Amino acid sequence: MTLVQDDTTTLPDLSPEEIRRYSRHLIMPEVGTLGQQKLKAARVLMVGTGGLGSPLGMYLAAAGVGTLGLVEFDEVDESNLHRQLLYGLADVGRPKIEAAMERLNIVNPYVTLIPHQVRLDSSNALDIVKDYDIVVDGTDNFPTRYLVNDACVLTGKPNVYGSIFRFEGQVSVFWAEKGPCYRCLFPEPPPPGLVPSCAEGGVLGVLPGIIGSLQANEVIKLIIGKGEPMIGRLALFDALRMKFRELKLRRNPDCPVCGENPTQIELIDYEQFCGIPIEEPAGADDIDITVTEVKEMLDRGDQITILDVRNPEEIEICRIDGSIVIPVADLQDRIGELDPRDFIVAHCHHGPRSTRAVHLLQEFGFSKVKNMKGGIDSWSLEVDPDVLRY
Amino acid sequence: MAISIHAPTPLQRFIGDAGEVEVDGTTVGEALSSLVERHTALKPHLYSDDGKLRSFVNLFLNDEDVRHLQQDATPVSEGDTLSIIPSIAGGAP
Q1: In this structure, are strands B20-24 and B2-6 parallel, antiparallel, or unpaired?
Q2: Which of A11, A361, A381, B23 could form a disulfide with A366 if both were Cys (CB 3.0 to 4.6 A apart)?
Q3: pLDDT classification of A196: cutoffs 50, 70, 90
Q4: Considering only CB atoms, which residues of chain B are within 8 Å of chain A?
């Protein structure tokens, strides 16, 4: 099966402007006029226009992929700018999709851009995916990755996968019609909290540039039908050691989605599948305490222990005076440093890690322990602007 | 039989901040056991409380997924590399 037909009579012609623009492609035998026409005919859906989507979108637009669909619901944050080259300082606060469309249109006005300003979910994924030839996974969370995979398997589309963490990246092409899918490699997601995200663990700004570019390369190869696509192979990149490794991937005959007797023939609830608790209604969770409540307690002279569970690198940027620092990963080993009789307020950067810390402390019999809602970021915004934000 | 175990970034802090460690064993299971005996803090990340390898831990002997070999019982040879391949998703908090 070819993604884009070889029949020159049905492929779109290239205009004189396009011939000039794509001349360095056209003179390569592997691309040529036919390959460039296929690129023009191709429809590629990018899920996410962040770190991976930035180089991906710019290279695919520059290369003349005729129709690019963009799925994105987020807004540009200042902390995106060290890696998301689609955006500049003036874009902070704007919807990413709006800024991305503008930028990509400057890169190549001959490309048709289709915005999908939604959070991809089980209710809309199949409908969006069905109109494209290739889907590129540039997402940042497990539920959406399983969703993208399953939607691609169910609609028969190739899924060009890329993922990053700190200095490590992964690239593959999952295409159930020709090889394994994402679930054949990762049947189950790790439980929430066990694998740190880039928001907690950080990511080298250049890394998504490299991995997103490799995804763009795979997309172009699939469209022009040349070379060896990464079907059945997983590339691992270690930026720190500057090493690439390659692993063989095989189809899992028992895969619930692409296996011989699939048990899952429609999209499911991926938040639930990934073990992410459904948000409790306001007031139901009594572990939270607001930054203003904490400030009031401190001002009153109440005896409270502020437990900062962030990493040393984050402590170096800012901290609340008088806090005890124990990174959440070390908490169990160092639990003896805390007194279960104390009133403890745990905090991290935004809240997820300190929520885990509170649950862990409760398991160990700590009863007077609270999570400072919104973390040190809220503290900086609402209590003490001298605490630096990051 | 000495083989090297390759650990991904999130787990490296449990094995002395090393990306690769040498262990002894004649099977994949033995090699992993000697790894977690030496680095006990790593154990809960690989094994559940009932001693079973966690289902989301992906192991590759050289470039093959051990699920397609003989799982824990897969024999290893001198100089092999056993890699723990992490599920990584990206940036969302």
Answers
A1: antiparallel
A2: A361
A3: low
A4: 8-10, 13, 19, 41, 45, 54-56, 58, 60, 63-65, 67-68, 83, 85-93
Helices A32-41 & A206-224 angle (0-180, nearest 10): 110
- Give the C-alpha separation, B62 to B83, whole Å: 7
Q: What angle do CA A268, A269, A271 make, to 5 degrees?
A: 140
By the CB < 8 Å criterion, does A243 face chain B?
A: no
pLDDT band at A298 (very low <50, low <70, confident <90, very high): very high
Strand partners, A174: A159
Q: What is the pTM of this model?
A: 0.88
Q: Report the relative pairing of strands A67-71 and A43-47 from DSSP bridges.
A: parallel
Structure-token pair, residue B85:
């391949």
Both tokens assigned to A118: 């939604």
For residues A114, A117, A123 and A128, what is the CA-based torsion angle, rounded to 10 degrees? 10
Cα(B31)–Cα(A326) distance, rounded to whole angstroms?
Answer: 32
Phi, psi of A257 (to 5 degrees): -105, -45
Q: What is the pLDDT of residue A279?
A: 56
Q: What's the CA angle centered on A202, arms A354 and A212, to 5 degrees? A: 135
Can you give the pLDDT at residue A2? 65
Residues A9-28: pLDDT tens digits?
Answer: 789 999 999 999 999 999 99
Q: What's the CA gap between A167 and A163, in Å, rounded?
A: 11
Residue A363: phi and psi, rounded to 5, are -60, -35
Residue whose C-alpha is closest to residue B10's, from A313, A194, A358 = A194
Q: What is the mean pLDDT of the segment spanning A274-295?
A: 75
A152 in catalytic set = no
User: Cα(first)–Cα(last) distance of chain B, in Å?
Assistant: 41
In this structure, what token pair is assigned to residue A165? 């963490």
> Among A49, A144, A186, which would you mutate to test the B interface (most chain B Cβ atoms within 10 Å of its Cβ)?
A186
Q: For residue B55, list chain A residues with Cβ-Cβ distance below 8 A.
A: 187-188
